Amino acid sequence: MPRTKNAPSQRNRGRLRIIGGQWKRHTLYFNGGADLRPTPDAIREKLFNWLAPVIEGACCLDLFCGSGALGFEAASRGAALVILVDNNRQSCEEINKNRVRLGAQKIRVYCEDALEWLASSNQAFDIVFLDPPYNSDLARRSIARLQAHQLAPGTMVYVETERRLKLAYPKNWEELRSGHAGQVSCRLFQITSSDQSDRLI
């Protein structure tokens, strides 16, 4: 991951490229600390190949958005609205700079705690991207909070975690796709009904 030399305040600044859509090959810059972990290009490409039939016109939520890579990729490929939420001020400032630079009017950024924001929102979503920090309990807590949000049948939920992590998913989350890259695991679910009892994956 490229880093700017001779600038200590920028030592965690990196860059990545949007893979497809309106802003294909445009660069996104990010700066959120050493623990910021953008979704690998190979997984991003796989995910948006999965979502290709449904991304156009979708309303998307990117929780723990970090670099904003998933949200910008969704907007680039035709999503109607993309909401990015993260509590890291540096990350949000950099995302807003990228948003202005690209003229990404479909993107909205909230610099807030992701779970608190979700608890206070009544927005309906077509696609939710969930990629919380590793080595934390946030994946489990986020799934529980999404259950409480009562996502409508048909909603897609993408979950990215460390590969070794085992999670209980609601029974009404039908797994459509899954994949791995190194130590990263990714799964795409679709909400099928209002039955919310759990199963372990």
Compose a concise summary of this entry:
This protein is α/β, with parallel strands linked by helices and 201 residues long. 26% of the residues lie in helices and 29% in strands.
Structure report:
The chain is of the alpha/beta class and 201 residues long. It is built from 5 helices and 11 strands; from the N terminus they run ββαβαβαβαβαβββββ. It has a 7-stranded mixed beta sheet with strand order 5-4-3-6-7-10-9, with helices on both faces. The longest helix is centred in the middle third of the chain and has 14 residues.
Name the descriptors.
201 residues, globular, two-stranded antiparallel ribbon, 5 helices, Rossmann fold, alpha/beta, seven-stranded mixed β-sheet, disordered N terminus
Strand order of the largest sheet: 5-4-3-6-7-10-9
What structural class should be given to the helix and strand makeup?
Answer: alpha/beta
Q: CATH fold name, please?
A: Rossmann fold
CATH class type: Alpha Beta
- What is the chain-wise order of helices and strands? EEHEHEHEHEHEEEEE
Give average pLDDT, whole number. Answer: 88
